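Amino acid chain
________________
===
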Amino acid sequence: MESITKNNKSIIRGWAMFDWANSAYNLVITSTIFPAYYTIITTTEEHGDRVDFFGFTFINTALANYSLAFSYLIMVLILPVLSSIADYRGNRKQLMKLFTYLGAFACMALYFFKYETLELGIICSSLAAMGYIGGVLFNNSYLPEIATVDKQDQVSAKGFAYGYVGSVILQIICFIFVIKPEWFGITDGSFPARFSFLLVGLWWVLFSQVSFRVLPDSLKHQKDFKREVLKKGFIELKKVWISIKNIPVLKRFLTAFFFYAMGVQTIMLVSAAFGEKVLGLGASKLIATILAIQLVAIAGAYLMSWMVRIIGNIKVLMLVVLLWIVVCLSAFVINNEVQFYILAILVGLVMGGTQSISRSTFSKLIPEQTEDTTSFFSFYDVTEKIAIVIGLFTFGFVEELTGNIRTSALFLAIFFALGFLFLLRVPKVSVLQKAN
């Protein structure tokens, strides 16, 4: 591997630009325009919110959640193999590129998504999710290599802040097309949303090139590729798990993370569809709300990073998990726009901090002598992705079972409560506070 000077500002900026590039997918496709567009076009007078997918009938939002859960499950199964290949062949950056282009071109293909092409839309949205997941894995694994332990909270926060700023800029551009199509002579009501999906793919490809120029590949361990490498990823995960079992603070943190990640990621993925289905806000109001969430999330990421230096990682995470429980309980009872907007601000405040501090906490807890950080981050990502699969499937299943999406939101509070209880078991005096 090329030598990396830790805390190098230009390298850190280049690394953070990957968040700038791919967060446009996270905002436009998973959080705002796509779920609003999807919910609107799949709700008809004839069939209500029921849709036909390859001959099977689903509630529209449940189908979207199932498809995302399926995407995450597939990535859970192949991430260990990919991490092993990256370690064996030293081609981490090439795999980052592969997933970036998969996700970006899938987003571009969503330009052709209409009610008549539901299957195409679901398949492309699933492929886009896989591209995003794979790219994030390999980008995350660079964090302990580009920053010293005492700087990882700030660097992680910088990455998320870059992501929020970049995604908001593109979201504003897309927003203009959605609310003022007449400015551009657009008469097709579906065109602004579909054009936004195309822009996301182009943005993703363009700005990721900055990271690809700066970040080096990992060390190549073998000269020739062998079949055993396909098993090596799972063997490496087993080794990581054995290592984790011997580090009680890391084991307890990951257990807590597993439970609260079920709730955090699910809420981020379903919030726009929830707002449309419960309150009928419409695409314009939903987009404006999610934009506000992103702006608040920037401040939230830096606020949580500052709080970490005062009270430590675990106490900050305990606080934000309690706030997430408040979010779930509130979602069950809100009945007007003002309440939804207040709740959205709270989500934005804790969203950035939860992701940023969780990533940097795990990075700090990896033993300093560890050379293969990709395997550890593969384990972290597999943990998160399994949590997302369970969270999304549970959310969709509870809605199908009860016919009420509010009940699904309330159910997520159980996951957060379990996460909080396990955080209580994490030692408060640890390497985390020493590093701060």
